Amino acid sequence: MTTTNGEHARVREIHRRIVAAAERGKWDATALSYYVGQPFKALIAAMLSAQTREEHTIVATRALFALADNPADMLALSDEQILRSIRRVSYPLVKAAYVRDICQKLVERGGEVPQTIDELMTFKGVGWKVAVLTLAVGYGRSEDITVDVHVLRIGIRMGLIPRETKKPPRANDILKIVLPRDLWAGWNDLMVRFGRAICAPTYPKCKICPINDLCPKIGVEKPAR
Ligand code: SF4
């Protein structure tokens, strides 16, 4: 897939308008945005956020980090304490076990969170998406673009990603071509917020969307009235 200067210009204008709309509308921050530059918290928050609503991830991470903010202290918590803190996330029992396993491995490494996707993915509960998110949020590293349901859905609607694309790593490869490099790091955060405020999974608010004239609305059958 190749891209043109014209497409980069369209993407830059899309980005500019969505950022402006987010500021005007004071769109809610994402759960992960609270942990920028904090690799341990970013890792735990990213793992907990999988298949979980943002507001539930925010409540869970705040409750858990209020009890312990480093691997050794978190490992010392009881199962009951961890479970009670994260009970609103999806699959809390499984994720409570992941929390303990991640903390155990981090303690064995002297508390340092790995800085590569491959190493991170050896941890239980950490797949490609969680690993990329951890590196981006925790370490400010953006060799890849975190692709979740929002990034994929909106990318297809905007015509950035082919409609048949299903797998996040493939969508990442495509986005790395169509997005200017300096937009990679913040793209996931912006799309999550945009997806909650405007480009919802069902009934996207195309009528009031700041990029209505720039978006081909691919696959959108029922925009909100
Ligand atoms: S115009 Fe509609 S489909 Fe396109 S980004 Fe806006 S809300 Fe989403």
Describe the fold and architecture.
- There is one protein chain.
- The protein has two domains: 5-27 and 145-214, Orthogonal Bundle (Endonuclease Iii, domain 2), CATH 1.10.1670; 37-139, Endonuclease III, domain 1.
- It is 56% helix and 0% strand.
- It has helices at residues 5-25, 39-49, 54-67, 71-75, 79-85, 92-108, 117-120, 128-139, 149-158, 168-178, 184-197.
- Helix 2 (39-49) runs antiparallel to helix 8 (128-139).
- The chain starts with a helix and ends in a 28-residue tail after the last helix.
- Bound molecules: iron/sulfur cluster (SF4).
- Residues 154, 157-158, 198-199, 204-206, 209, 211-212, 215, 217, 220, 223 line the site of iron/sulfur cluster.
> Domains counted in the coordinates: how many?
2
User: What is the C-alpha radius of gyration, as a whole number of Å?
Assistant: 18 Å
Question: How many distinct beta strands?
Answer: 0
Low-pLDDT sequence parts: none
The percentage helix is 55-70%
Tally of separate helices: 11
**Order of SSEs, N→C?**
HHHHHHHHHHH
Shape: globular
Strand content: under 5%
Distance linking N and C termini: 35 Å
Q: Look at the structure and give the CATH class of the largest domain.
A: Mainly Alpha
Helix-strand category: mainly alpha
Q: What is the annotated CATH architecture of the largest domain?
A: Orthogonal Bundle
Write the CATH fold name of the largest domain: Endonuclease III, domain 1
Ligand names: iron/sulfur cluster
Taking the sheet with the most strands, its summary is: none
Mean pLDDT: 94
